[in-house]
């Protein structure tokens, strides 16, 4: 048995909104992916943003702890954010392998002493629907998190904040011209792998994300109009294992669809290289 704890980074209201537009919460989506990878996994989902006490086993009894994406902002001063930072520090103290996607990377970086702030890119607030021109660093080419990744690739993306400064001793494993896109953080007793992009999404999922945030994407200048958001969402929605549309390429300049990967490679590699070995070691000791 492999025991994984998924920490959904969204408030109750945001979880309801994601369910309306995508059919499930981010944590439920990732739970489905993990179960498809290995049916020996037992998954628990918790909501550290909520005011209710988080009820889990002692954290060291899990084989992996994962932090999802979120609509939250590290710097907003909200109690829901403070609760998540506190829980992330407890996770780092557990000695369990950690993984984070988007907000999960930002949360881990901040909890371990790094800095997170609004995106500083010059083309709009939010990097979406794609992160173009991601490249593995020298460290990334050797890192097991990116096993089977091309040296250069494009991925789905959805973030208006970025990791500005990683904690001491952290290693950047991927970046593009705008942002840190992946990193390893060693802090307290745990190793964390995280990505800013969204390797877990297919086209229909990203289309739902766009629609869920359509008004804010227009308000912040990322897109010109709600019509523009819907046009891109509709084009993306129908592509779940290949994505090749001249119109989409025109709308999303700089994205090379031949470099797009539809497998959640970093999640697969975390499971295979850190989580499953820990579970096997625990069974051997037991």
UniProtKB/TrEMBL annotation:
Pfam entry (one): GATase
Task: Tell me which residues make up the Glutamine amidotransferase domain.
Answer: 59-206
The family database entries (Gene3D superfamilies) matched by this protein are listed as: 3.40.50.880
Superkingdom in the source lineage: Bacteria
Cellular component, GO, one term: cytosol
Q: Where is the signal peptide?
A: none
Q: Which InterPro entries does the record match to this protein?
A: ChyE-like, Class_I_gatase-like, GATASE
Matches recorded under PANTHER family: GLUTAMINE AMIDOTRANSFERASE YLR126C-RELATED
Name recorded for this polypeptide: Glutamine amidotransferase domain-containing protein
């Amino acid at each position: 048995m492999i025991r994984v704890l998924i920490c959904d980074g969204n408030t109750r209201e945001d979880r309801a909104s994601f369910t309306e537009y995508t059919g499930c919460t981010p944590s439920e989506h990732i739970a489905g992916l993990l179960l498809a990878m290995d049916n020996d996994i037992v998954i628990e989902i918790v909501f550290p943003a909520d005011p209710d006490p988080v009820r889990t086993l002692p954290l060291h009894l899990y084989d992996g702890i994962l932090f999802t994406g979120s609509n939250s902002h590290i710097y907003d001063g909200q109690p829901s954010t403070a609760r998540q930072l506190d829980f992330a520090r407890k996770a780092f103290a557990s000695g369990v392998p950690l993984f984070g996607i988007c907000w999960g990377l930002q949360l881990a970086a901040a909890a371990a002493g790094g800095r997170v702030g609004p995106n500083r890119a010059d083309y709009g607030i939010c990097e979406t629907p794609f992160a173009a021109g991601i490249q593995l660093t020298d460290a990334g080419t050797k890192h097991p998190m990116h096993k089977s990744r091309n040296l250069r690739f494009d991925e789905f993306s959805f973030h208006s904040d970025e990791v500005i400064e990683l904690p001491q001793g952290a290693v950047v494993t991927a970046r593009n011209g705008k942002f840190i896109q992946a990193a390893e953080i060693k802090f307290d007793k745990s190793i964390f792998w995280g990505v800013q992009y969204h390797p877990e999404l297919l086209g229909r999922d990203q289309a739902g994300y766009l629609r869920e945030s359509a008004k804010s994407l227009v308000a912040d200048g990322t897109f010109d109009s709600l019509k523009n958001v819907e046009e891109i969402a509709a084009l993306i929605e129908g592509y779940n294992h290949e994505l090749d549309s001249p119109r989409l390429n025109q709308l999303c300049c700089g994205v090379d669809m031949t470099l797009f990967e539809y497998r959640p490679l970093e999640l697969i590699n975390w499971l295979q290289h850190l989580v499953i070995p820990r579970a096997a070691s625990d069974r051997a000791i037991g």
